Amino acid sequence: MTRMEATVIGAGLAGCEAAWQLSRRGVHVTLIEQKPYKRSPAHHADTYAELVCSNSLRADGLTTASGLLKAELRMLGSLILSCADAVKVEAGGALAVDREGFTKLVTERIRACGNITVEERECTRIPSGEVIIATGPLTEGMLAAEIEKLCGKLLSFYDASAPLVEADTVDMTRVFTASRYDRGTPDYVNCPMTEEEYTAFWTALVNAECAEVHGFEDSRVFEGCMPIEVLAKRGIQTLAYGPLKPVGLLDPATGRMPYAVVQLRRDNRDGTLYNLVGFQTRLKHPEQARVFRMIPGLGHAEFARYGVMHRNTFLKSPGLLDIGYALRNDRRIRFAGQITGVEGYVESTASGYAAGVSLANKLLGQPEPDFTRRMVIGSLAHYAAEGGEGDFQPMNANFGIMEPLPKKMRRRDKKRILCERSLETLQTVIGEKSEQGEIT
Length: 440
Hints:
Radius of gyration: 22 Å
Shape: globular
CATH class of the largest domain: Alpha Beta
Structural class: alpha+beta
Strand content: 15-25%
Number of strands: 17
CATH architecture of the largest domain: 3-Layer(bba) Sandwich
Helix content: 25-40%
Largest sheet: 6 strands, mixed
CATH superfamily of the largest domain: FAD/NAD(P)-binding domain
Strand order of the largest sheet: 6-2-1-7-17-16
Order of helices and strands: EHEEHHEEHEEHEEEEHHEEHEEEEHHH
CATH topology of the largest domain: FAD/NAD(P)-binding domain
């Protein structure tokens, strides 16, 4: 029997998921990863599936589309979700992970898989045979030029990450631990601000010096990763009603809700690093230290990593890719991850899953799956393949791209029914495949 083979380029979240799903279906995978010989501006580690922005995979409950997508991927046997669950840290209703432990575990699982051969080198050309390109939103150089010849010019937007502080440099006498509305365990460190402290902080922030980012425009930044200083310039109250909103938090020192609150979230399992929630930034590093130390409790904070901004690139996928993330005019080539126009860690993972399973089924001579818009994983694939109204832009998981319900209802009921419908549909698909001796 001829050995089934495929190449996956890029060992990020999408590439690792795609390689794993191919390998468990009997396909031998050559996984090409440029680290450690070359890193993008956003990467710091030599391991795979590195989380470059935040250590949070966002909400985990079945009240959001992000939580529903995680439930779908768990049912489907996702590598990335199993690793995330194994190294999760407490973060209220969100799934957050020990950043270093997560990337190490994914790397160990990939390297230990007998059906995956890793080649650590830069890939400058699209190889022959079946291939999944999961090179991420920072694809550049000769490979980017080849992609542009096939697909047209790559579009771009800007993304930012938040700084990390060393936990033992936070003044715990100035802060309190709590989760909003006391939901779950008190997993966030909250830095309360008076109106005077907030006003002084806002004034310093909007006047701080930013690092130059070539081609930067506010309109080209994904809204979910908008730099905090850009948000602040929209008005003095923008932060107080946004990432610094105090609603649902009572300061035990006063018994009242603070004027504003900066939240810190664990970035690793040991609790030695904290992430400044919502503080994506492009401020110069000395300015970050100066301004962020104005936050109560962070007066003497030491920064383990400063926030950075970088350009992300993605395809104009609608009409170019099908729902299996394959090129419509050359189906031996598929894409996965943020380069397809999905936005977010779990969304990238979902595209890697769908691309890997679709390719595996093709090689096995089986119908390629359509997860349908009744599921988030299918809705993202259909969005990439078909787009929406207006210009194509990066998209997070959300209920709005799913197949609508036949009648109007209260939003809470709508969410519940969409979640129930998704998991019931997926359970049916898994059951049918199991009876046929196949695994979706």
